[in-house]
C-alpha cells in the first residue's frame, strides 16, 4: 500500500522505539535544547512527586511523526497534530501506529487523514494524533 493506493481502514507499518534510557533522555536534551530537569534530574523528579524522570513529550511525538513520514515521505506530510495522554517512563518501549481514517479526492488531488497512536509496553496510550497526507504523486 502507498499513499496513492491507500484507502480507509488501511494501516501503516508500526514503529517501535526504545527502550527509553537515561542516556536517550540526556542525548535528546542536548540535541533539542530542552533541559527541563523533570526529564533528566531524578532528584528534581522526586521533589515534583514523580517516581522517576520521564521522556520529553516531543521525543515521543517525533516517533509518532516518523510513522507517517516513513510511510509517505516528508514532502507528502501536510500537517501533524498530537495530544499527550500519559507520560512515557524510563525503560518503556514506545510502539507507534497509524491507520487511514479518511480519503478525499478533489480535482485529482488525494488527501488522506491518518489516525496515529503511541502506546507503551503495558498498553497505556501516551499520545494520540492525526496526520494529513497528500496521496497524489
Description:
The protein is of the alpha+beta class and 137 residues long. 24% of the residues lie in helices and 34% in strands. It contains three helices and five strands; from the N terminus they run E-H-H-H-E-E-E-E. A five-stranded antiparallel beta sheet has the order 1-3-4-5-2, covered by helices on one side. The chain starts with 14 loop residues before the first strand and ends with a strand. The relative contact order is 0.24. The model has no long low-confidence stretch (mean pLDDT 95).
Number of strands: 5
Instruction: Write the element-wise H/E pattern from the N-terminal end onward.
Output: EHHHEEEE
Termini separation (Å)?
A: 14 Å
Number of helices: 3
Structural class label: alpha+beta
Mean model confidence by pLDDT: 95
Main sheet specs: 5 strands, antiparallel
Q: Regions with pLDDT < 50 over 5+ consecutive residues?
A: none
Radius of gyration: 17 Å
- How helix-rich are the residues, as a percent range? 10-25%
Q: What's the shape?
A: elongated
**Portion in strands:** 25-35%
Order of strands, widest sheet = 1-3-4-5-2
Write the layout of secondary structure elements.
Blueprint: E1 15-17, H1 22-32, H2 42-47, H3 57-72, E2 77-84, E3 94-106, E4 109-120, E5 125-134
Antiparallel strand pairs: 1-3, 2-5, 3-4, 4-5
